[in-house]
Every structure is written in structure tokens, then in C-alpha cells.
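Researcher: Batch entry, complex prediction.
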Amino acid sequence: MSRTLLFFVTAFLAIGAHAQDAPKDRVLTGDAKCTRCHDENDSFPVLEIGKTKHGTRADSRTPSCTSCHGESAGHMGWKREAGGTRPKPEVSFSKTSKVPMEARTQTCLACHQGSSRIDWQMSAHARQDVTCSSCHQVHAARDPVRDKLAQSDTCFACHKEQRVQVNRPVHHPIPEGKMSCSSCHNVHGGNPKQLVRDSTNETCYTCHMEKRGPFVHNHAPVQEDCGICHQPHGTTIASLLKSRSPFLCQECHSDTTHRSQAGALPGGRTTSTGALGSVGRGCLNCHTNIHGSNSKENSGTAGRFRR
Amino acid sequence: MRKPVFKLTALSAVLAGAHGFAQAQAEDAEVAALTAPESSVSVGLGYWSKDRPRLGTYDGMREQGAYGLLDAWINTRDERTGTWFTLDARNLGLETRELRADWLRQGNMGLSFEYSRTPRDEPYTVLTGVQGIGTTTQRVPSPSATALNELHLGTVREAMGAGFTKILGGGYDVRFSFKSEDKTGDRLWGRGGAAEFAAEPINSSTRQIEAVLAYASKAFQVQGGYYGSWYTNHNSLVDTALTTGASPFFLSLPLDNQAHQVFANAGFSLSEHTRATFKVAYTRATQDEVIPTGPVAVFAGAPAGLDGRIDTMLLQAGLTSRTSATFSWLANLRYYDVDDNTPQVRIVQTGPTCGTCVDNTPLSFRTITGKLEGTYRMIHGVSLLGGLEHSMQERNVPVGNFNASGVDLQRYVPFRADLDETTFRLEARRSLAETLNGRIALSHSRRDGSDYTLTNDPRGDQINPIHIADRDRNKVKLMLDWTPLQPLTLTFNLEHAKDEYGTSSARPYGLTEGSAALYSIDAAYAISETWQLSAWYTRDHTEANQLGQRNADGGAAEAVKDAHLEDIGDTFGLGLRGKPMPKLKLGVDVLYSRNVNKYPETLTLTGAGTPYPAGSVGPLPNITNKLTRLNLMAIYALEKSAELRFDYIHERWQTDDWSWMFADGTPFTYGSTTDGTQVVQAPKQSANFIGARYIYRFR
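Model: C-alpha cells for the complex:
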């Protein structure tokens, strides 16, 4: 009896030990053929994908390694004796990948073409050969580009001008992590400047809705494009203005009287409008409702954003 | 020597099997640890050594003192059902606190809740005797106040949001989101009727709702829905006057407005290599609140409410195709029509007939943009891209009050009814080698338009307004990405743009030319497996030449002004990350930024008088802003699941901005006999921060 029992225990454990030798899936369904070589100690660590939405096996839509990288028979079947180096997977996403950009992107779009990515192929990024993996780290537990605080580092890898602008003294709270580039930009979309809404103004109104009007007294460039006067990424001038008063206002206004004043600082206290265009709020010292006014006062000055 | 021979006896088999089983279990646990979502909680304390009015504008740590540092990232997943719960809580010990909670049954449905608080502290200190700041009744001292109160203006946005998503099956899903935000506080303003101080009282709310129904299959994706937004201002009019009761000015505030949008967006992959997209959106924005007036004279014919309505229509269609392995093209057509249907009404008329009268000025504009682009991929990794874009804009502001010559008496800036712009683009990209990639892009655009509609001021008609002026724009961009050694990557960027604005003898003023240049180098170097260094430097330089005329005023002669405005920025960044010991991570970040703004303006006097009005000093001096920030960070692992993190920040900001100064550098003071308000800023700000956190990680 004891011999029989010992036999079965031995056989069970031996089978167990043998079964362990056969590679098994670790994270994704069908990943065994990859994870038998690639793990976290590999130069291409892969297991962290298990911490992501892609690694949620309970969701039947989640992929396997080969869904994105292809069956890669050449990569799998390579023998050292054959010489040379192991071919890369059919679809690889590294910076030096020889796989065409469209093919790399199509791998992701096979599942993610909907929603805000419907217009991806029309987008400025697509036309510049930016691929999904240029910005996204698919295997990372927390993709930095999807984190509000870290996102801009990814964008600044290409957008150098914006990197210096957000470090200017007047900026939107991007370095502080209260906003991110994607607060205003749909980087997958086909809108002008890849904005989240259909125009610059419609995008700005999502936070600055008081500027939408329409006002009793409209200021035409305000209605047309906030970007005529403002540089949203950062400047050295209050209110993110592109230029300082009176020069900014004089890009359009060349009228008579005080409106034509040269840039100068008053020597002391004054109420002369001809001396106040550069100091304080500049022209806005008096034209205080510059985005538009709702005054019905029966006075000519009401139409000049002073009430 | 005889080699030992391993015999699979029953006992050795048992031992081997047991060992394998244990090993498998350990391996499974290790894999689980590497693949299970991770959470962390961080608790700590920080201290800023001094006030940081400029650099603490948005981070909730403006004042000297201690701050609680509390963050949490809770991220769990039920492996059986694929249900996630995520809680991302940041800055809980600060005024900038925010929190987002997500519950998601992956592949089925999700719910989210969000809270965020965003303070903006005005970097200036206001010293004022104006009474009633924070209310809608403000009184300016007359005579000037001598005892001034210290004010720190600022606003706070407090937002809450919720979201819902549901996958309906068959390729359909729905998404719903709601966001509500309240904004309160005060900001720098003016009394309008005179250059005297006032603070705009802000107490408003916005609401946004979006509902989307989407369908996606392999070849066809479509989504459509509704987006509504509402703005409510709890204040509508500010009553200002001198403390004597004289000079009452009633200042209007933005009124309630709302917009409703219906939209649809579709994409259809006609074949593996050809895709068509289409987008349509219609928005109706209205502002129909009764206009508050206060006890001021109102024109009898002025309406009670504006009945404002702007209808916006977007139509966009695109087609892109890769017709061969080497050639792809794109065509896109966009129609964007902003139609201001606000009725034109008279607001101001001081006499029985139109002497000084003002109508509202609804602006409508319709832009049609067509784009064609082709990319040819040649041998040796070279791609050539050529593009053509043409936009046509029709613009309209109805003439409200014209004289016998047809000139609109209330127009201040010349106007163009048509504006066209054509852009040609040429680009070459080449993978020069495995380790070298380059790109050069050239573009040229030309903007022109119809004849100008004149204003009632011959001087005003002599300008080319910047946004509608004739303009030639040339741009060049160069980029080189080079990996000279395995651990070293260098990126070079060079960008230059030049604008030339059309001028004529009849219309000589405004911007005549402008340029923008950017030179940047980035380097990343892996010193070893455990140390990485990165550094970058960027110089940006913009220039604008602006010509204008100056009227004789305050003793100053009539003159022609020629300003050569310049902004020069030098920004340097450095980052070092390392792991000198298995338990210790170190990080160093340095940021240095220096910006110089120049305002030289030459005056050529064309009449009798002085160069500047009596008491004024020009031209304006340069302004230099400097920022230096050093961040040191150390993380020490107490155990596998616990860390201590220490931070040290040194930051220094310096400016000689004269915005709130008189010519001699003393603080600008409002009014000559009234008010007396001063707005000041510390020209040098330097502060140090130390922080310590305990971070606990768990699954």
C-alpha cells in the first residue's frame, strides 16, 4: 500500500515538475512563447504590461504579444548556429525600427481608431511620421504621457519652443501640474493646431467662458481669435500677452490723440491718458473691459470698453 | 574520478518534484508581484523659507511656512472580473488639492468622479485705500489715501466633474461627462472712466455637459453627441465712485451666456490604405440676459437685452491614401462659419439724431480652407513632402452709422471683408543612418485681401492691422537626431521664421516685419547602467519692427515712431538620475532661464514740440527676467515596500520689470489727487524648500 502511494505521489510530483518545464503564459493569453525569454531582467522588460489595461485578462478584448508584434516566426525560430543576429519581431516599435510608421500606428489603431482618434490620419502628428509609440509607453504601469504632471516632458521632446515658454514667469499652470498639454490639445485629432475643440476660441471658452459674449460692445479680434493678442504657452508679460501695451494695441490702432502715444514711463503721478499707455495695465488702465463690455450707458466712452 | 550518476529513485523524484513545485509557486508569486497593479501613499512635510509671490502663483505654496505633503495613488484590479478601482489624490495638504476616483469594469462600464482646486495668487501686492474691494460697490479715496491697506488679490477655481462610460456591445458605446466649476476672487481691474484702481469681483460658475454615442468597427467609426456649456455670473454690475460721491462709473461685467452644440465625426477606411473622414458640428451660443444699467442715462431706443446669438457651423471632410508603397497623399476641406446673428441695435445716441452714437457690432466670419499634401518615399530612406493650403475668409461687421461718403463713423480700425492666405510647404526627411535622422522643412505663405473699409479717422486708416494685413511668411525648420555613441544621443533644432507685412505710402503703419528664431540642443548620456545625464539649451529670439505716428500731445511734437521690439530667451536645463546604491536613488535638476525684452523706439519729430510729453520719459528701458531653480531629490528604500524621499529646492527669481513703476523706479501710484493705490512686486525673490516624505507601496 505504502509503495503504491509512494508511486502515485512520485508520479504526480514528477508530472508536476515536468509540466513546469513547459513554458506557461505569465501575463497575457498566449504570451508564453515570448515570456520564456523576455522578463523584467531582459533588455526588453515586458511583464509590467500586466499592470496595465492591456494586461487585464478578464477583458476578452485585451491582446497578446503577437497581436501587436506579429507572429514573428523568424524571430522565434532563429538558431545561433545559423549565424548573424536574431531578426527583430515582425512589428517593433523602437526608434530604430525598420517597420513603416503607418504599419506601427495601424497596430494600435486596429483597436483604438474610434473616439478622439477618428481623424488621426489627418492629424499633423501623423503627417510628421509620429507614431503611437513615439509618445506612449505601452508596457509601463503608468504611461508618463497620460499623467498630467509628467505629460509635458514627452511633448517637449519635440516642442522646444513651448518648453521654454512654459518656464516664463507668466504661464498656464502646466509646470505645476494643474493643466497639461492635452487640456487644450487633442494630439490625435484633425482640428487646426490639434485643439480639443473646433477653434482656438472654442477651446479657450472651456475655461474662460466669460469671454464668449456676445457683448453689447464687441472687440472684434477677441471674437475672432484669442491668439491675436495672447500667447497661451507663456510670456514675460501679464495676462499672457504677446506684446506689451501700448505696442500691442498699436498693432491695430493708429488713431489720433493719446492712442498714438510712444512707449514711455511717467515721471510721477498723472491722470494724463497720453502718459499712461505703458505703465500699470497700460491702455487697459481705462479700457478695462477690453474683451467686451455690456454697458448700456448712453455715453460714447461706453463703446470703448471703459464701462 | 568517477562522475556522480543521478538516479531517479522514488525519493529523488519526490524531492525534485517538491522543489519544482515550490519553485513554480515562488515564480508565480514573483510574476504576480511584477504584474499586479501597484498602489502608494505618500505622507510628508515641507517648508518654504520665504514668500514666493511670483513662483508660487499656482502651486498653493506662496507664503513662507510649512506645508503638508500628502498624495495617494490607489490602484486595484479584481483579476476575475477585470474591475479596477483607482484613486489619484494629489496635493491633499495644499490649496491645489485634487482628486480623481475611477471605477471601471473593463470592457463593460466605468464611472468617474473628479475634484480639483486651482488657486491663482496675483504676484503683486496692492497697497490701496479703495473701499469695498471684493464687493460690487467700490469707492476710490478722494483726496488720495495716505493710509494704505495691503491686498493680495487672487482667484480660486473649484471644479467637480463626473463621467460615465458604457460599452453597449455590437461596437456601440456611450460616454457622458459633466463638469461644474466655481470661480471666486478678485483681479486687477480699472475704474474705466478714469485711470483709477478697482478690483473686479469674480463670482461665477460654469457647467459643461457632454454626451456621446459612438460606434466602431474595423473599417467604420462614428461618434455623435451633444455638448452644452453654461456661464453664470453672480455679479453683473460694479458701482464705483469717488468717496465724495463724485464721478460715478458703473462698470459692466460679463453676462450669463450659454452654448449648445450637436456634432458628429466619422471615419471610414475604404481600403487598407485609403481613409475618409467627416466632421460636422453646429453650435448656437446665446446671451440674452437683461442688461443691468444702474442709475445712469440710457438711450430710449436701447433694448432691454441684447438677444445675442452666434451660430457656428463646421463641416470638414478629408481623404488620405497610400496609393503605392512609395506615395501617399492627403486632401482636406474645412468650412467654418461663425455667424453672429445678434440683431444690430443702437446702444448710445446722445442727441435726437446720430451725433455720437454707438451700435453693437456683431462680427461674422466664414473660412474655407483646402489642403493638399503628398509624401513620396524614395530610396535610401528619404521622404519628400509637398503641400499646398489655401484659405479664404469672408468677414462682416454691418455698417451701423455711415456718413455721406459711406464711411462708418463708429469704426476705429480699418476692416477687410475678404482675406485669403496660401501656403506652400516642402519637407525632406531622411534616415541618414541607423544613428542619424534629419529633417528640413520649408514653407512660404502669402496673405492678402480685399480693399480696406475705412474708418472715420484718416490717421486710423493709415495702419495695417496685424491680423488682416498683407503678409509674406517664410519658415525653415531643421532637425537632426544623432546617436554618435551607444549611450549618447544629441538632438539639434533650428527654426527661423520671417514675416514681411505689406505697407504702402497710403498705409505705412503697423508691423512692418517680424522674425522668430529658435536654436536648441538636447543631449542625453547614459553614464553607466545606473547613472543618466541629460542637458539642454535653447535660445529663442523674436523681433518686430513697428511703425506708427504720434500726434502732438502734452507738449510732445507730432512724430513718426519706429520701434524695434525684441525678446531674447536663453534657457538651460540639466537632469541627473542615479542609483549609487541598491537602496538609494538620487536626482538633480537645474533650470536656468533668462529673458530680455527690448523696447527701443526712435521718434522722428515732424512738428514743433518735445520728443515726449511733459513728465514722461522714453524710450522704455529693457526688462530682464531671470529664473534659477535647483532641485535635489533622494529616495532611500527602507524595505521593499517603503521609501523615504527627501527634496531640496533652491529657487531665485529676479526682474527689473517697470510695469508698475514711474520712470525713476518708484512705485506707480494711481491718480494725481485721488486714489493713491500702488501695485508693487519684489524685484528679487529667493527661497529654499526642504521636504521629507514617507512613501508606502502596496498591492
